[in-house]
Amino acid sequence: MNSKFSLAHLTVLGCPPPEMTYIASMAGYDYVSLRPIYMGLPGEPNYDLAVNKEMMKLTKTALAETGVKLLDIELARIFDGMDPKKYEPAMEVAAELGGKHVLSSIWTPNREYYLEKFGEVCDLAKQYGLTVDLEFVPIAAVNSLESTVDVLKTVNRDNAGIMIDVHHIHRSREAAEELAKLPKSWFHFAHLCDAPVEIPTEHDEMTRILREARSYVGEGGIDVASYIHSMPEMPYSIELPNLQRVREFGYAEHARRCLATAKAYFEAHPRKDV
User: Which percentage of the chain shows pLDDT scores above 90?
Assistant: First the structure.
């Protein structure tokens, strides 16, 4: 199996980037996906590496010592009143650490506004050799495959892409076959996890599972393989926050189980084009 895997920060959000990198290395990951853009959410740690120079130095050391690479950073949200230039320090960090992508999502319903701002984020990221990969989230304003495709086609930036999260696309009731119709050049990485097959009707329950109760791949009810096989082969970032598992096993063992179950699932569901 040649698939490459990244440990997403939300999976081990209590771990600062240096610790997270060593955990990823011990568990066998190829990459880490860091969260250096502080959003100020309740209980969210601040890992702003552009400001915390000591943490930046330790992160760089951890990457060098382990050979783990930085895949992407997050989250360049598009929201009312935002200033794209505030993301530039994090982009500088990503470029310095060897990252390739910036994850983005859209949280304002104002189409004209979000098209303009997403385009500005793409232009800013291009200066640092980074792609900007738009993720649709079921609780966000842009929450469907159709609206995401509309953004990419309208903005028409050569460093813009789409980032499919298995949880989100299942919750949005999108058909896997639709992914195969999209340009392969749009795909740079994807988010892996699983979840109960039943789609919550309550916003709070949708949010709870999304942020703190996802399942190991193969242990939920999502047809993960149908989505993965409809996209090109690329790195898979395992974004699998589960507070109960972390309490039971600790961050390191949770991260290891995330990767072990994903690899076992991939081996049991090989791509037909391989």
Answer: 91
Number of Cβ within a 10 Å radius of residue 163: 26
Closest to 25 measured CA to CA, from 75, 73, 72, 59 = 59
Tokens of 199: 């789609």
Which amino acid appears at position 55 of this protein? M
pTM of the entire structure?
0.95
* CA-wise closest residue to 52 among 99, 18, 10: 18
Quick one: which H or E segment has residue 62? helix 53-66
pLDDT at 274: 43
Number of neighbours of residue 180 by Cβ within 10 angstroms = 12
Count of CB atoms situated within 10 Å of the CB of 58: 17
User: Is residue 75 reached through a cis peptide bond, with omega within 30 degrees of 0 on the bond before it?
Assistant: yes
CATH of segment(s) 5-268: 3.20.20.150
Residues 6+ apart with CB under 8 A from 88: 124
CA-closest candidate to residue 145, choices 116, 167, 169: 169
Its sign, for the CA torsion 107, 112, 115, 119, is negative
What pLDDT digit, counting tens, does each position of 214-263 carry? 999 999 999 999 999 999 999 999 999 999 999 999 999 999 999 999 99
Tens digit of each residue's pLDDT (9 = 90 or more) over 107-126: 999 999 999 999 999 999 99
Cα(174)–Cα(176) distance, rounded to whole angstroms? Answer: 6
